[in-house]
Please model this.
Amino acid sequence: MAEQDFTRAALEEHLAAGRLMGVRCPSCQGLSAVPRAPCPACRGTDLQWVELSGRGTVVGFTVVHVPPTPLCAAGYGRDNPYAAAVVRLAEGPWITARLVGVDASRPETIRVGMPVRVEFLREGTRTVLAFRPEG
Amino acid sequence: MKRLARGVCLVGAGVGKFGAFPRKDSRDLFVEAVGELVASVDRGLDPGDIEALFLGNYSSDLFEHQGHLAPIVAHWVGLTPRAAVRVEDACASGGVALRQAVVAVASGLYDVVLAGGVERMTALPTEAVTDALATAGDALYEFPAGFTFPGFYAAMATAYAARYGMPYEALTAVARKNHDNGALNDKAQFGMTIREIMARRVAKARERGGPVPAWEDEREFLRDPAANPVVAWPLRLFDCSPITDGAAAVLVVAEEVARRYTDRPVRVLGTGQASDAALYGREELTSLRAAREAAAQAYAMAGVAPSRIRVAEVHDCFTIAEVLAVEDLGFFPPGQGWRAALDGETARDGRIPVNTSGGLKAKGHPVGASGVAQVVELWKQLRGEAGPRQLPGEVDLALAHNVGGTGQTCVVHILGRG
Model:
């Protein structure tokens, strides 16, 4: 049953459909942007998928000039760096994601605390979670 | 409060030369470290006394295409058929291997155990090493986002700078201090001050007949994007520990047999270890909860306060990591750690000398060996055998802080003079 499947595979299906989903635990109200069962806080098993607003703020970020192999193959590198961030979602939980719509050549223009909004990047067959500065 | 069931001492310690050695495999590196260890045992060691090996190794599988490393290494150092255990907790593998050896001896199961660590990293190209190290993060939710290992610590640096007003350039003080110390360590991969590195580059440019760089001082050198390129902004090359081959080992024994080997053992006074979630499971990026927890356990077991520690080896895989470490260990209040190296407080003549060995930054960071190599340095400092970098005066209490991943594992040991 899809509703009971709190796995990465299930999350990726949601992302591919353009939905940012989290997992809520009705017993302790714990909310996670990364699906897992049981609830890490109270060990409850009666979990639910909930759609998240996709709004958040940057907690910390980087601009990567020396990428791992798959991103080198995708054309990133010293001459084409990309940004990644830890984002605190409006509903509370944190998630790691790509940061787009920023000037990676001028990292001093990217700010901790910057409001961002979710975006779904297509990379090959995969949907990669990303955020873009609001406004 | 947790205590060891019986006293545990270190009676020997050795570290091989750190660097890039295309002709040496893990087993060769470990043999070299054990050679120095055997020579360090005051009353001599019959290798037949060693009852088990705990070997810290992060990923011989990825780096050398060699799994099941512990029995092979045990065979190479003549321990077969003794029990041989590989311990993997990313860059904390060595510190955790030591802790497992301490626990095994304290339990009464063994009296004499070899704790070691080894990593051979330079056989792969940099991108492949970047991939291998990134597997210490979260392969499902961090790696696809584009995070690399320097990237994780870079994110911590931006969060720290935003919270406490640290200028990024302050981080270079950590690199300068650790290179100053590494210049006095003949086992270091970069046994050179940053000034010496600059002079070497100038000499090489002259030799080649190309344009000769004219840096005014270290600051200008470190600001030069050609000399110090960005790896993961705001971290540059000189904020990062290098890719290293190396090994280290210590001999862990029950207190009651220590005098068989030496009149000057080093006592294990405290040990602590804790775990944490990947970055998305944290509450802050400006401190490592596992480090605070492991330190609290070790301080409580040893019955000492942070202010009593005379020297510390901390996990400076990146310059920002040393800043977080000196705060998490209670040497400096939150938000003040970035000033420590800048103000000379963590230099060899400072209030709390940190990374007298050169740290991971200058000595090198063969990941599975680093936690053990830290303890080898402290063993030397406590026994007055650290040569040109020996601290003056009485060195009676020392602390080692070893981090795995982005702080998902942290292990802390407090050592005292026997």
Notes: Chain A is about 10% helix and 40% strand.
